[in-house]
Amino acid sequence: MPSPPRARARLRALCGAAVLLAAVAGAVPAAASGTAPAWSVTPSAGGGTRPAQDGRPYFYAEGVPGTVLQDKVAVTNPGDSPLTVRLRGADADNTGTGALSLRTKSTDTGAWITFARREVKIPARTRAEVPFTVTVPADATPGDHPGAVVASANGRDSGVSIHLRVSGPTLSALTVERVRVVGGRISYDLVNRGNTVLTPRLAVRADGVLGRALDRRPRTLPVELLPGRRVTLSEPWTNTPALDSVRVRLTVTAGGGAHDEATATKRFVPWGGVAGAGAALLAAGGGAFWLVRRRRQAEDGGNGDRSDHPDHGTPESSETPEIPESAEIPEISEIQGSWS
């Protein structure tokens, strides 16, 4: 998007003939028999501050605060009927899981976009080019301000992203936070602490008492992390240790020198085996308790009153009171306590 001093004046001059019909009827191929082809929206060829001869996948604009940048968006109607398209600007955003989305209410780039006409009627088999400007506020912060041009028609929305950079100092910084291992996955948060769009790279390593449990070399994540955004991502970890205490370390990097690390500790215990062993110990302990009780009963069975036996005192002073035949085996917690 060039930024000539008289950009505003040029836009006003274009408003009189707001839509430039770049293709007359018949220049765009008519629909073949059957379903009509869908309309499309793209950057106008040859415009912007980074034009390309074979078309641009997105708008790119750069300027200092206070600059008015100018470009054109092309909307193609290949159908046999006229098409009414509504245009608007929007701020880009990240969803909570990292996917790109658009904000419902624009307060940044989307709010800085002004179209020569917001509603355009395009004849059949015609491409229309609509001029627009991006007015960068004088107090705009330096760095990346991602946005989009959105076209709406026939119940469908289609857009083209705008890569807007406001000139000034830039900072690439990100943090990895809230690392946790849950259900065979390593979950974590990434936060863009700088003012540039980042494409993070992630390395994962886990070291346990029994040795290295996981080692994944750095790889690029399928995420464009916008400035100031937080996303929650996860890594699968299916072959977790059966028994170990592991320290998981995540290392993230990105262009511009962004770097951060975070760790989490996880203990892996085969609770099924522990429960089985505990049940076996309880059974063995219950059996031993029963045998001891029966032996004592057998030893005292033919001696009559315990108070008359030379080896015993009175029942009140006995250290091991007699357990009635009807007594139940104590609860598990009591048995565990008695062996502590």
Question: Which features characterize this protein?
Answer:
340 residues; mainly beta; 6-stranded mixed sheet; 5-stranded antiparallel sheet; 4 helices; 15% helix; elongated; disordered N terminus; disordered C terminus
- The whole-number mean of residue pLDDT values reads 78
Characterize the main sheet. Answer: 6 strands, mixed
Proportion of helical residues: 10-25%
In angstroms, what separates the terminal alpha carbons? 79 Å
β-strand number: 18
Coarse structural class: mainly beta
The amount of beta strand, in percent, is 35-45%
Give the uncertain stretches in residue-range form: 3-18, 23-33, 273-281, 304-340
* Count of helical stretches: 4
Radius of gyration from the CA trace?
Answer: 37 Å
Choose one word for the global shape: elongated
Task: Tell me what you see in this structure.
By secondary structure, this protein is mainly beta. It contains four helices and 18 strands. The protein has helices at residues 7-15, 109-112, 271-300, 332-338; strands spanning 20-21, 40-43, 59-63, 68-77, 83-94, 100-102, 113-115, 119-122, 126-135, 143-153, 156-166, 174-182, 185-192, 201-208, 211-220, 230-236, 244-254, 258-268. The strands form four sheets. Strands 3, 5, 6, 8, 10 and 11 form a six-stranded mixed β-sheet that branches. Strands 1, 2, 4, 7 and 9 form a five-stranded antiparallel β-sheet that branches. A four-stranded antiparallel β-sheet has the order 15-14-17-18, with no helix packed on it. The model is unreliable at 3-18, 23-33, 273-281 and 304-340 (pLDDT under 50).
